[in-house]
Design brief:
The protein is an alpha/beta fold and 232 residues long. It has a single domain, classed as Alpha-Beta Barrel (TIM Barrel), CATH 3.20.20.70. Helices cover 31% and strands 18% of the residues. It contains seven helices and eight strands, in the order βαβαββαββαβαβαα. Strands 1-8-7-6-5-4-3-2 form an eight-stranded parallel beta sheet. Helix 5 crosses helix 7. The chain is globular. The structure holds D-xylitol-5-phosphate and zinc ion. The site of D-xylitol-5-phosphate (DX5) has 22 residues, from strand 2, strand 8 and helix 6.
């Protein structure tokens, strides 16, 4: 499991210091970019993201919650290993956008709002590196995890496995120690967590707590599976 704290829950007045508190402890940094149109909120844009880019070697997943992703791709400073993730709901013809993201040197992520059927992106799966399943309505941190997301993750994971694809599943929104185990057991490889990490005083302890909770549940599910009482 990879953990990617969401910068949205960090103190925007001291972003460099905030990033330093998770350096070496996590596999990615989730960066929410909002335009006030796709979502009813505005966060940070390319200027701020680029100013932060060289302060850390943690790979960035830039989550574009914007109605016109194509006009922003080239504005980001990309390091190898970074993801640019666009929303399927605003892109009728994803081919050119995906090519543009690859040209920029980033890996390709595609995100889905909670009410968009996961089946909508099945045709696109061979073209992307990551699917970001939103488990809250996009726009704000600190919301409650939508339980229907678990079934969506399972369906997506089933399709990826059935076709033998190397697409990673990330899940974004409302994840905490209570539900992380279920999210991982459903098939997520990357867990995005804002409030649960940057909302905590002690980030090291919060990260360790999430990993412990994820492992506990995974081990429990595995045991049940081995005893024929459940499915992975
Ligand atoms: C919501 C954002 C999320 C958010 C997650 O629109 O895409 O990345 O920061 O925050 P928590 O973990 O607090 O739900
Ligand atoms: Zn996000």
């Amino acid at each position: 499991m990879k953990l990617a704290p969401s910068l949205l829950a960090a103190d925007f007045g001291r972003l460099r210091e905030e990033i330093a508190t998770v350096e070496g402890l996590v596999e990615g940094l989730h960066v929410d970019v909002m335009d006030g149109h796709f979502v009813p909120n505005i966060s940070i844009g390319p200027a701020v993201v680029n100013a932060l880019r060289d302060s850390t070697t943690i790979p960035f997943d830039i989550h574009l919650m914007v109605t016109e992703p194509a006009s922003f791709i080239h504005r980001f400073k990309i390091r190898p290993g970074d993801f640019l993730t666009f929303h399927i709901e605003v892109v009728a013809e994803p081919g050119p956008l995906i090519a543009q993201i690859r040209e920029a040197g980033a890996k390709v992520g595609v995100a889905l709002k909670p009410r968009t059927p996961v089946e909508a992106l099945f045709p696109l799966l061979p073209e992307v590196d990551l699917v970001l399943v939103m488990s809250v309505e996009p726009g704000f941190g600190g919301q409650e995890f939508l339980p229907g997301s678990l079934e969506r993750i399972r369906r997506l994971k089933g399709e990826i496995l059935r076709r033998g694809l190397a697409v990673e599943i990330a899940v974004d929104g409302g994840i905490n120690e209570e539900n992380i185990g279920q999210v991982v057991a459903a098939g997520a490889e990357t867990i995005v967590a804002g409030t649960a990490i940057f909302g905590a005083q002690d980030r090291r302890a919060a990260i360790a707590g999430l990993r412990r909770a994820a492992l506990g549940r995974t081990a429990q599910t595995k045991r049940r599976f081995e005893h024929g009482e459940g499915t992975l």
